[in-house]
Amino acid sequence: MxxxxxxxxxxxxxAAGRGGVRNxxxxxxxxxxxxxxxxxxxxxxxxxxxxxxxxxxxISKGINRISAAIRASGGKNYFVQxxxxxxxDQCWSIMMTRxxxxxxxxxxxxxxxxxxxxxxxxxxxxxxxxxIEKGRFSAFTPGTSMLKQALEADGVDTVIVSGTVTNICCExxxxxAMQHNYRVIMATDGNAALSDAxxxxxxxxxxxxxxxxxxxxxxxxxxxx
Length: 225
Prior knowledge:
By secondary structure, the protein is an alpha/beta fold.
């Protein structure tokens, strides 16, 4: 089931403390806008997967709606895939420790080329879209992804974030994007977490200081305006 969250309540609460402003950005320059889709891979979306997020199976339509609007308006889609680093037991040993019994399945499942590493088949990935790997939660962690370099080369100043998990990799990426001076928009119906509470808490935290909250329909309308 999709997340049952009243996003208007979140935005109204925030607006009450910042002069009635719900969202900061009212317009988009499509040619400077990137849609960054985080970890929509079989290993997170498929039933019975190592890190299954059931709600992620409900967000493909919203993601595809944004992707289509981006292509039509001259922007670019970046599909980011978590990929197990070759030396993960050394370079990110804490991650393996925290995963505990899940560590072997996680390591093997998200190795490049494996089934769980592949993008979810319901995503529309077309010629002109870009696939980029990352080796940490945030796609902006230095030395673990080429996303920032790609965005800089394309003259991007605005990042729309969708994917899973809302409160882990999506939130980490959005926070870092803002701190690298990107305008950030979180797609409310294009992100998924393990519970409504986790999803809502992450979006409320992000909306306070890091990102605007918009539905896929709102984003598509902004791109076509």
